[in-house]
Amino acid sequence: MNELELKYGCNPNQKPARIFMKDGSDLPITVLNGKPGYINFMDAFNSWQLVKELKEALGMPAAASFKHVSPTSAAVGLPLSDDLKRACFVDDVAGLDESPLACAYARARGTDRLCSFGDWAALSDVCDETTARLLQREVSDGVIAPGYTPEALEILKTKRKGNYNVVQIDPDYVPAEQETKDVFGITFQQGRNNFKIGAHLLENVVTVNKNLPESAKRDMIVALITLKYTQSNSVCYAVDGQAIGVGAGQQSRIHCTRLAGTKADTWFLRQHPKTLNLPFLPTLGRPERDNVIDSYINGNEEDVCADGYWQKYFTTQPEPLTVRERRAFLDTFNNVALGSDAFFPFPDNIERARMSGVRYVAEPGGSIRDDLVIAKCDDYDMAMAFTGMRLFHH
Question: Quick one: 179-269+330-386 is in which CATH superfamily?
Answer without folding.
Answer: AICAR transformylase, duplication domain (3.40.140.20)
